[in-house]
UniProtKB/TrEMBL annotation:
<feature type="domain" description="Aminotransferase class V">
    <location>
        <begin position="46"/>
        <end position="228"/>
    </location>
</feature>
<feature type="region of interest" description="Disordered">
    <location>
        <begin position="233"/>
        <end position="255"/>
    </location>
</feature>
<dbReference type="Pfam" id="PF00266">
    <property type="entry name" value="Aminotran_5"/>
</dbReference>
<dbReference type="GO" id="GO:0008483">
    <property type="term" value="F:transaminase activity"/>
</dbReference>
<keyword id="KW-0032">Aminotransferase</keyword>
<dbReference type="InterPro" id="IPR015421">
    <property type="entry name" value="PyrdxlP-dep_Trfase_major"/>
</dbReference>
<dbReference type="InterPro" id="IPR015424">
    <property type="entry name" value="PyrdxlP-dep_Trfase"/>
</dbReference>
<dbReference type="InterPro" id="IPR000192">
    <property type="entry name" value="Aminotrans_V_dom"/>
</dbReference>
<protein>
    <submittedName>
        <fullName>Aminotransferase class V-fold PLP-dependent enzyme</fullName>
    </submittedName>
</protein>
<dbReference type="InterPro" id="IPR015422">
    <property type="entry name" value="PyrdxlP-dep_Trfase_small"/>
</dbReference>
<keyword id="KW-0808">Transferase</keyword>
<keyword id="KW-0663">Pyridoxal phosphate</keyword>
Amino acid sequence: MLPSQHALFEIPPGVCYLDGTAYSALPLSVRAAGERGVLTKSQPWKYPDARADALAESARAATARLIGATPDDIAILGSVSQGIATAARNLPLPFGQRILRMQHEFPSQALVWDRLASERGLALEIVPRPPDGDWTAAPLTAISRPGAPPIAVAALTPLHWSDAALVSLERLMQVLREAGATIVVDATQALGVMPIDVALLQPDFLAFPTYKWLLGPYSLGFLYAAPHRQSGLPLDENNGNRSSGIPAPGARRYD
Ligand SMILES: Cc1ncc(COP(=O)(O)O)c(C=O)c1O
């Protein structure tokens, strides 16, 4: 069992903060790093290296280590919704096929799929919450339903935010890959509390923010893009992801 980590935080005695699933408290070390970050902008003459790529690259490398990816597979974004929108922008969505997602999914992993299904003429299949709570069996049944259109995209999570149910992505992904589906994962509630290995799971895209169980700041998130998904378009072009008009290498093109 993990021993008490209380000393790493500034939560005073008598306060029991249990809302990490929404907005975790920063450890002291992260607060200190954030304060150093603010200094680089309030006293920029003292921090000439603050705008160099090294800091972003070290965050990219740490993120890659966490999920079994390489730094080239990681894009730096501001939210999960940006990651999912980037995935949606770069996946084939053939007319008449299905987009599959889970009921009560978080809006960042639901709204874009619902809109695209209606705009592009795909069938939107929302797997209802199973009465027995088995969030692995229910999507499996939906995936393999005889006569149903092929699945273009499955929007999944390893840990459902609305009821904390675990979903066996390993089992779902295998069936989905055999069916030729692309797979987009929102790993927000899992990263930091359970292992996620993209080499094992092989999603097309996987997004998560830092402000929950990764104990980082708000407005920072990461997108894993599988190597074969690293030739698409970002949500917006900028000097970082299109230096001199040329796409940055790997998933950096989505930064
Ligand atoms: C499952 C899940 N996905 C995503 C998010 C955050 O999404 P975004 O970064 O788009 O605000 C949350 C935050 O509560 C969440 O619980």
